[in-house]
Specification:
The chain is mostly beta strands and 113 residues long. Helix content is 0%, strand content 53%.
Amino acid sequence: MDTTETLAGRQGETRGGSTFEFSEGEKGDVLIAAVRCQGKGEIKVSLKSVNVDFPLKCVDGEVSTTHNEVGVAGAENKGTVSVQAPSAVRWSMTIGRGEPPKAQPPEPSGETE
């Protein structure tokens, strides 16, 4: 997490599945899920309060990391995270809150009038 983000929840190194809670944020915040894993297999992360699921493929002998930002209605609510993972996979997760990304200006189309 960077200095503009606030911590909402954390799960230290874990093997197999687990569920943990994260705290409420401010209206308009995005929900940030940063996940690391190591070991052969795939984990499935479910952010219950916003109905978002995503997989992460984990590799034996290598640390895999994903950083997802969710900016949907209800992202500021407290909630739970469930992780399904094989026992051979070690994982950890940090849940944070932050401002939505700034909109990018449109790319020039290259067309002339």
